[in-house]
Structures are given as C-alpha cells and as structure tokens.
Design goal:
By secondary structure, this protein is mainly beta. It contains 1 helix and 12 strands.
C-alpha cells in the first residue's frame, strides 16, 4: 500500500486502512518498506535532521510509551533509518542504518518484556538491529503510521510503500 504525505501536511492518507488496522494487539508489527525519489528533501535549515515517523505502535498514549521506525533524508539515493521510542514519556532515538531508495527492506518491531526489538533486513539478507530498553508495560495500543516532521510539514508530496 502506498502512503502519501501531501505537500504542506504532516499525516499520510489511507484513512480507511488506518481505521481498519487501528488497534495493535500482537505487540509486533512488520512491513516490507520501499522509499522512492520523493523521499529526498532539503529543508535548508537545522530541521533537516529531525526524524520523521514511518510506522510502529503504542502501548497506551504514543507520547508516553511507543515504538516506531523513524527516517530522514540523507542523500538523493538513501534515507537514514532510526528506532524512535517513547519510554515513560522520554523520547529515545537511535540510528540503525541507511537504506537505498527504490529498494525493498523487511522491517519489524517486536515488543519484548523489557525492550523493543527493531530489525531491518535488506535483499542480501544483511540484518541491522537495535534494542531500546523499556519497562514491562502492557495494555491495549494502537498502530502508528507515516508522519512527516515535527516543526516542518512535508515540502512536497512524499510516497512510501508499506506492504505486509
């Protein structure tokens, strides 16, 4: 499925898909991910280094306890991938790897008892991982979808492919 973040917006479309897949009871989420040329942007200011959100899930409110993949534009042919978590309201961001645009990657997040486990696998089988420590929190959570920026809105339309 293509998620499009329109120019001047933060959120991606696909309202009905997001509604049908709102709750996350499995404590894990995985997608094949592919960025295209639209993922490249140059904001010309320090917000260039801000981390956009790709996908993930919450355990309760997402600014309190959640795990997501994040990304930002590093070159015309690649994006940087991060783990992006909130643990008891504290944001934790860790670089995982750079991935090439127009290439598909298997990406997954698993909620273990005391950590979130992130995995990125390329077409050659190379695996890039991160673990983010957390408390043993359980409860109903919801899925989180592509979101551009924090301060900035999308400078142009951005399309990201997420397939199960």
């Amino acid at each position: 499925m293509i998620f499009k973040i329109k120019k001047g917006k933060h959120f991606s479309g696909n309202f009905f898909y997001k509604l049908l897949n709102f709750f996350n009871f499995k404590k894990s989420i995985k997608f094949n991910v592919k960025f295209d040329e639209s993922s490249y942007y140059d904001l010309g200011n320090p917000n260039q280094l801000d981390v956009n959100k790709l996908f993930g899930f919450s355990t309760g409110y997402h600014h309190k306890n959640s795990a997501r993949f994040g990304w930002n534009s590093v070159a015309k042919d690649s994006v940087a991938i991060y783990s992006y978590c909130y643990v008891d309201g504290v944001r934790k961001i860790n670089f995982i790897t750079n991935i090439k645009i127009n290439s598909e990657y298997k990406m997954s997040i698993v909620d273990r008892r005391f950590y979130y486990f992130f995995s990125v696998i390329d077409s050659n089988g190379n695996v890039f991982r991160d673990n983010v420590s957390k408390n043993n929190i359980s409860g109903v959570g919801y899925s989180l979808w592509p979101y551009f920026g924090g301060d900035e809105k999308a400078p142009h339309d951005i399309e990201i492919s997420l397939t199960k």
